[in-house]
Amino acid sequence: MTENPAPGPSFGRAFGEAAHKLTKLHRRALADFGSDFPSWMLYTLLKEKGVPLPADTIAAELNLRMDLAPEDTRQLLDRAATAGHITCQPDDPRAATVLTEVGAAYFASLYAHARTVTDSALDDIDPAMLETALTVLLAVNQRATTLLG
């Protein structure tokens, strides 16, 4: 009798385990700079949009992206403003929030470091395989987004 080899993990399990480990690497990289994931998401949002955003828009977007409660967003804005990374008026939800030059420089350094750390998990993987994996992940993301409505 011939034994069949044990099947590999499901796509969901393999994806989940890889995502969990990459997340740990990413958070470690952020910690190297004294940062955290909510701050990363704030800086990313401000950099992506490239224009001043009202605090209430930031709160809505961070809630959408990572389920961050409005009070937590206010505390996040306070911390970033105290660090000199943004200008804002957290008490006025319509007041513009923007990255300062110091904040933009900090985020550029943080981004480069986090990218180096997380990209190290991809070392020695064939670039064509990575391109295929990215294509699959983007398709899965699009389909999941559609299913979630």
Protein described:
α1 crosses α5, α2 (37-49) crosses α3 and α3 packs across α4 (70-82). This protein has helices spanning 11-32, 37-49, 55-66, 70-82, 101-119, 127-148; strands spanning 53-54, 86-87, 96-99. With 149 residues, it is mostly helical. The longest helix is centred in the N-terminal third of the chain and has 22 residues, at 11-32. β2 (86-87) and β3 form a beta hairpin. Strands 1-3-2 form a three-stranded antiparallel β-sheet. Helices cover 68% and strands 5% of the residues.
**What summary fits the major beta sheet?**
3 strands, antiparallel
Order of secondary-structure elements:
HHEHHEEHH
User: How are the strands of the biggest sheet laid out side by side?
Assistant: 1-3-2
Give a count of the beta strands, DSSP E runs of length 2 or more. Answer: 3
N/C terminus separation: 49 Å
Category from helices, strands and their pairing: mainly alpha
Number of helices: 6
Mean pLDDT: 93
Rg over CA atoms, rounded to whole Å, is: 19 Å
- Which descriptor suits the 3D outline? elongated
Helical residue percent band:
55-70%
In brief, what are we looking at here?
This protein is mainly α. It has 6 helices and 3 strands. It has a 3-stranded antiparallel sheet with strand order 1-3-2.
